[in-house]
């Protein structure tokens, strides 16, 4: 039954290509796109079986899929986000363009890939589905038609594929050592050895690259900001979560050393603050949001590295909802220009409300879902690590005060009703799910918001926002070479620290 | 892109045999070395050989671009539907055929069509850039 979650989007993706070749009316294509986006959710309502093996084979030779409390938040976040993205996309992509049905088919493939990765119970299928999602993402980025988008997609393609090859090599090593690909069987048969340690180190570094965490993040801001708006929302909201889920699977099944975990926690903290700092210096609204993805993925890694997988999973759910909503609403406002100060929500109060709500949610203000997820992550941390979360919250709030400050000063025209609906609905979902999960209003959070506002105006008075952070490399080939070298160093570091 | 008469005649002779061999691999792959993917690749090679020797424009008249797309997408949809049919018999991709090899035979044939059409499709698209005759 669980396999149907993947089968429906895949089926409708093929149908859309078929219907496009037969040149049917565009309404039929739109309906089949929506069906492919929403039908997987119905599987969850039919009563969730714990796990199953496709085709009814035994565990050793079959493909195991399952839904547990660890991957349910990922799946729910993806399904909710994708439902709104689907509504948004059918009015975003223009059907006068002949390529539109292809974009819709690729979006469904992305959907199928992500869901398949989230339900996977063995490493190889996880890899395959993550690749389906990544390959569709490379192609989708170029659909925006921006001059920069092809370059961004190429950079993403080179780095992401390189990481994938290293990951599949690590899977090969794990298979060689344990004899299985199924995660339950791996964890039963894993005997610590040098080869296994090397595999863990390589897989860890390659998943970090695909998740866009600090020293390996450099493809992310370009790719996420130059993609079409609905695609940006899925990329930031869900695509970077698949490797994060892979990290959870790896930490669950394999012996990960204490040194590597400490390194991971350090990387996570650096990633949180690096993302915030870079976001503060951006003038492009979507780049600002993209840098926040680097920062927010740091929280997810912090949860994983402190072995608090449930916290990481709920943070991933929260991040899918608010970051997806932010990309959808800011993208709708800034269709003509994305430069801060030149557009805004002054004349559209409904968008203003949704952006403000989503900003509070990402800053971890109660009773939004962000505060619940942050609470879960902080419950697994001890001592000084907790202060990182408080500082991170304030930093995020400063950056979003900046976004709202500039949005308040500009106006935007012709925002379609369905776009307003998607943004405001996602905003209310972040509030509703926070309340549902049991977040209560905490007056202390007002202090954070006020503190963030004060700090924002101090920084503004110090003319920090006039500065521009731009790391230029010139030729794309040169840039990819440098980033590859950084990636190889990261692999070496994690392999050595894991003790191979 | 039109090659000499020797090449054109040879490819014309070889192509039907390649198609036969592809069909053999697809239909007998569940019991012998071979299978859908290999059969599909050889199926595509039969068309690609003709394209390289006779030119894109001439081959396109017989093997239409849209057909490749049509076969590719319908084979993909059939593949998923085959899995969903299995649900009626207990599990996704359950083996519901009592024959030797069960659903592997239809599976291989569909995969062969999918792969063959997809490779031809990719080759057509790449050639649109190279050749404009």
From TrEMBL, chain A:
Keyword set, alphabetical order: Cell membrane, Membrane, Transmembrane, Transmembrane helix
Domain of life: Archaea
Domain NADH:quinone oxidoreductase/Mrp antiporter transmembrane: 120-399
Molecular-function GO term, any one: NADH dehydrogenase (ubiquinone) activity
Transmembrane segments: 6-24, 31-50, 70-91, 103-120, 126-144, 156-176, 196-220, 232-254, 260-281, 288-307, 313-333, 345-367, 387-405, 417-440, 446-465, 477-497
GO biological process: one example: ATP synthesis coupled electron transport
Localisation: Cell membrane
Membrane topology (UniProt): Multi-pass membrane protein
Matching InterPro entries: CPA3_Na-H_Antiporter_D (IPR050586), NADH_UbQ_OxRdtase (IPR003918), ND/Mrp_TM (IPR001750)
Annotated Gene Ontology cellular component terms: plasma membrane
Short name of any one Pfam family annotated for the protein: Proton_antipo_M
NCBIfam families reported for this sequence: PRK08375.1-2 (NF006237)
Protein name: Multisubunit sodium/hydrogen antiporter, MnhD subunit
UniProtKB/TrEMBL annotation, chain B:
Membrane-spanning intervals of the chain: 12-31, 37-56, 77-97, 103-127
Compartment(s) where it occurs, according to its Swiss-Prot or TrEMBL record: Cell membrane
Gene Ontology, cellular component aspect: plasma membrane
Membrane topology: Multi-pass membrane protein
Keyword Cell membrane: yes
Residue ranges of every copy of the Na+/H+ antiporter MnhB subunit-related protein domain listed in the record: 6-120
Protein name according to UniProt: Multisubunit sodium/hydrogen antiporter, MnhB subunit
Chief location bin: membrane
Pfam families listed in its UniProt record: MnhB
NCBIfam families, A to Z: PRK08387.1
Keywords annotated in UniProt: Cell membrane, Membrane, Transmembrane, Transmembrane helix
Keyword Nucleotide-binding: no
Lineage of origin: Archaea, Methanobacteriati, Methanobacteriota, Thermococci, Thermococcales
């Amino acid at each position: 039954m669980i396999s149907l979650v993947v089968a429906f989007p895949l089926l409708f993706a093929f149908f859309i290509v078929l219907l496009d070749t037969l040149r049917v009316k565009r309404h039929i294509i739109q309906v089949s796109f929506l069906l492919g986006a929403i039908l997987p959710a119905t599987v969850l309502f039919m009563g969730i079986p714990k796990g199953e093996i496709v085709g009814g084979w035994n565990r050793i030779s079959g493909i195991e899929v399952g839904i547990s409390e660890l991957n349910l938040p990922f799946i729910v976040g993806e399904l909710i986000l994708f439902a709104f993205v689907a509504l948004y996309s059918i009015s975003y992509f223009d059907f006068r363009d002949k390529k539109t049905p292809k974009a819709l088919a690729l979006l469904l493939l992305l959907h199928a890939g992500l869901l398949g990765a989230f339900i996977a119970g063995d490493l190889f299928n996880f890899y395959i589905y993550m690749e389906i999602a990544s390959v569709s993402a490379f192609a989708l980025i170029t659909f925006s038609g921006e001059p920069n988008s092809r370059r961004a997609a190429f950079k993403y393609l080179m780095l992401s594929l390189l990481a994938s090859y290293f990951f599949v090599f690590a899977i090969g090593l794990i298979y060689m050592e344990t004899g299985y690909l199924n995660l339950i069987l791996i964890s039963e048969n894993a005997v610590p050895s040098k080869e296994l340690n090397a595999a863990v180190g390589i897989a860890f570094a390659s998943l970090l690259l695909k998740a866009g965490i600090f020293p390996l993040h450099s493809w992310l801001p370009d790719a996420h900001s130059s993609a079409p708006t609905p695609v940006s929302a899925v990329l930031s909201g869900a695509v970077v979560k698949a490797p994060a889920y892979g990290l959870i699977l790896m930490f669950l099944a394999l012996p990960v050393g204490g040194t590597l975990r400490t390194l991971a926690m350090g990387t996570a903290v650096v990633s949180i603050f690096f993302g915030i700092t870079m976001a503060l210096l951006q003038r492009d609204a979507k780049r600002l949001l993209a840098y926040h993805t680097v920062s927010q993925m740091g929280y997810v890694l912090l949860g994983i590295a402190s072995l608090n997988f449930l916290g990481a999973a709920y943070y991933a759910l929260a991040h899918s909802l608010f970051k997806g909503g932010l990309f959808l609403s800011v993208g709708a406002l800034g269709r003509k220009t994305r430069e801060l100060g030149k557009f805004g929500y002054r004349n559209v109060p409904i968008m203003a409300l949704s952006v403000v709500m989503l900003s509070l949610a990402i800053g971890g203000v109660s009773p939004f879902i962000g505060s619940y997820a942050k609470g879960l992550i902080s419950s697994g941390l001890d001592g000084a690590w907790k202060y990182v979360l408080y500082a991170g919250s304030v930093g995020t709030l400063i950056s979003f005060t900046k976004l709202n400050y500039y949005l308040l000063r500009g106006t935007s025209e012709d925002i379609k009703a369905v776009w307003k609906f998607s943004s405001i609905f996602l905003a209310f979902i972040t509030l509703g799910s926070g309340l549902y999960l049991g977040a209560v209003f905490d007056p202390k959070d007002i202090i954070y918001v006020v503190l963030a506002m004060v700090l924002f105006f101090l920084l503004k008075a110090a003319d920090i926002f006039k500065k521009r952070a731009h790391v230029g490399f010139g030729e794309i080939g040169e840039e990819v070479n440098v980033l590859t070298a950084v990636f190889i160093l990261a692999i070496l570091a994690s392999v050595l620290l894991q003790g191979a | 892109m039109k090659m000499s008469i020797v090449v054109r005649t040879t490819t014309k002779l070889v192509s039907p045999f390649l198609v036969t061999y592809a069909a053999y691999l697809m239909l007998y792959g569940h019991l012998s070395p071979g299978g859908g993917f290999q059969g599909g690749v050889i199926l595509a090679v039969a068309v690609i050989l003709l394209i390289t020797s006779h030119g894109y424009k001439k081959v396109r008249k017989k093997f239409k671009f849209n057909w490749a797309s049509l076969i590719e997408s319908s084979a993909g949809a059939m593949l998923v539907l085959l899995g969903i049919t299995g649900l009626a018999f207990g599990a996704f991709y359950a083996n519901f055929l009592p024959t030797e090899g069960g659903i592997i035979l239809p599976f291989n044939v569909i995969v062969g069509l999918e792969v063959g059409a997809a490779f031809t499709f990719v080759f057509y698209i790449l050639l649109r850039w190279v050749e404009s005759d």
